[in-house]
UniProtKB/TrEMBL annotation:
Source organism superkingdom: Eukaryota
SUPFAM superfamilies: Winged helix' DNA-binding domain
Entry's family note: Belongs to the eukaryotic ribosomal protein eS19 family.
Record PANTHER family: 40S RIBOSOMAL PROTEIN S19
One record GO biological process: translation
Pfam families: Ribosomal_S19e
Protein name in UniProt: 40S ribosomal protein S19
UniProt keywords, alphabetically: Ribonucleoprotein, Ribosomal protein
One Gene Ontology term, aspect cellular component: cytosolic small ribosomal subunit
MF (Gene Ontology): RNA binding; structural constituent of ribosome
Length: 164
């Protein structure tokens, strides 16, 4: 993680688009059961309209993990991978609940006030398992998700493609 932070050098939309096209062209993700009718959150009424929404979500998730990993690289990345850390700062956490809250939405409850709900776990867990199989991410002992060296190489390769 000693390399320069390349994630922030390109536009997030173009990076997500590059990763999306790479994932979909090489068929690197397994689609969950009932993919075409799967809602992304309890607050949504229908499934997404786009056919490649899973790849876009995966690309966005990989970028978020990369940003978190780069942030942690400044604060002794190796120690975070090896032992448990006790921190009270919310920005230090990037576990499954943080991911679900990030991709959640506001639920329309009729005449009652809206309420923030998390996204569904099914497709997020499927994406994270696929990234683990590809050896792009690693889960620490306290539940954080961080990039591995292979994941860092992939992100840097995608950043290089986006800059051209």
């Amino acid at each position: 993680m000693s390399e320069t932070n390349l994630v922030y050098t390109v536009d997030p939309v173009s990076l997500i688009t590059c990763i999306n096209s790479h994932l979909s062209n090489n068929d690197l993700l397994t689609r969950p059961k009932y993919f075409n009718i799967l809602k992304t959150s309890v607050g949504k009424q229908n499934a997404p309209i786009q056919n490649d929404w899973l790849y876009t979500r995966a690309a966005s998730l990989l970028r978020k993990i990369a940003c978190f990993s780069y942030k942690k690289s400044d604060n002794n990345y190796k120690n975070l991978l090896s032992k448990k850390t006790k921190s009270k700062d919310r920005s230090d956490y990037f576990n499954i609940m943080t991911i679900l809250s990030t991709y959640g939405c506001k639920k329309d409850r009729g005449t009652r006030p809206g309420k923030k709900v998390r996204c569904n776990k099914t497709h997020i867990i499927s994406i994270l398992e696929d990234f683990k199989k590809l050896n792009w991410i690693k889960k620490t002992t306290d539940g954080h998700f961080l990039l591995t060296e292979a994941g860092l190489e992939f992100i840097n390769e995608m950043v290089g493609k986006c800059q051209k």
